[in-house]
Amino acid sequence: MTDKKRLLSGVKPTGRPHIGNYLGAMKQFVNLEDSHESFFMIANYHALTTLHNSDELKENTIDVALDYLAIGLDPEKSVIFMQSQVPEHTELAWIFNCITTMPYLMRAHAFKDAEAKNKEVSVGTFDYPMLMATDILIYDPDIVPVGQDQKQHVEFARDTASKFNRIFGETFKLPEVQIQEEVAVVPGIDGQKMSKSYNNTISLFASDDELRSSVMNIVTDSKGEGESKDPETSNLFTLHKHFSGDKLQDLEKRYRDGSIGYKESKEILYEDIKSIVAPLRERRENLKNDIGSVHSILKNGGEKAREYASKKMDEVRKKVGVSLE
Ligand code: ADP
Ligand code: TRP
């Protein structure tokens, strides 16, 4: 045991990560892993709510493990594991289901969005927040670092912990959500929130050509070179804020005085993003050549995670009365 605060977060293996995922969530993981006892999960049961193809799910799962390692997470310091390696998560989800009401889960943004779009909603999608509550609560973390759109899910976990504690006695710690405000919502190339669902992403591990083409496709207004541009409202400029560091003041001045055109601004942004992502991409390529060690990192991580979760579940089973001890 250590006296460090504990952290848990997760990523759903449903496709290539984009720079919104990286800045909004994954980059924080690396910054926090030294100061926290950290658990990083691959939420493969959550992916199953939308992905029904075993080869694809397996491939995406390894991809997230590679992503975690490529961004710099260190399996010597952190527990990196798959949700499915710890069946106690799904077991606890059933118990949470039995103390949660339908109207409460109907308030979830993800459910409401799916309903609004007239999508067919599976029971798993409806219940998504309860499984996520178990992912979190079973490890008693102090903080859960995520992007803005996961805030409600962490609140659901806190509510569920309180409710359980009220009914069965003090069992779960209430975790704090941790959101980095300045990267809470990274815009996509069309100016909406960057998201896989909107097809407006810049992939984190894109090749140079793909990266260039995504950046060149960023939507701007029609102001030409020589015309003053408003950095406050430009999503291209917002991306500069995340990637262009020292150059930012000069860029802002040039936006305002009109001495920069969007084409040049995009060329600069492309180079700046490339300089940050290229080393991550290279590390990922190297790791890919050694998939055996990725498998053993997961095996190890799964065992460590399960050790925690199974102790907690022993306590929970006793508290609710499904264990006769
Ligand atoms: P997507 O919307 O592309 O499907 P996910 O829902 O899988 O992304 O999000 C994974 C993580 O990345 C979450 O913690 C989420 O809050 C964060 N995230 C996703 N998109 C953005 C964004 N545009 N800006 C900041 N954080 C984001
Ligand atoms: N729902 C999260 C997402 O879509 C992934 C996730 C699953 C998660 N379980 C978690 C995140 C537990 C933090 C903690 O991004």
Essential attributes:
globular; 5 strands; Tyrosyl-Transfer RNA Synthetase; 7% strand; binds adenosine-5'-diphosphate; binds tryptophan; single chain; two-stranded parallel sheet; 13 helices; 2 domains; 325 residues
Overview of this protein structure:
- This protein has helices at 19-32, 44-47, 54-71, 88-97, 102-105, 109-116, 123-137, 151-168, 208-216, 235-243, 248-257, 262-288, 291-320; strands at residues 5-11, 36-42, 79-82, 143-145, 176-178.
- It has a 3-stranded parallel beta sheet. The chain has a two-stranded parallel ribbon with strand order 4-5.
- The chain is mainly alpha-helical.
- Bound molecules: adenosine-5'-diphosphate (ADP) and tryptophan.
Report the C-alpha radius of gyration, rounded. 21 Å
Q: What is the CATH C-level name of the largest domain? A: Alpha Beta
Into which percentage range does the β-strand content fall?
A: 5-15%
Element string (H = helix, E = strand): EHEHHEHHHHEHEHHHHH
Number of H/I helices:
13
Chemical compounds bound to the protein: adenosine-5'-diphosphate, tryptophan
Mean pLDDT: 95
Overall 3D shape: globular
The main pleated sheet reads as: 3 strands, parallel
* The CATH topology of the largest domain: Rossmann fold
Side by side, the strands of the main sheet go: 1-2-3
User: Total domains, how many?
Assistant: 2
The assigned structural class equals mainly alpha
| Percent helix | 40-55%
**CATH architecture assignment of the largest domain:** 3-Layer(aba) Sandwich
Low-confidence stretches: none
Fourth-tier CATH superfamily name of the largest domain: HUPs
Spatial gap, N to C terminus: 26 Å
The total beta strand count reads: 5
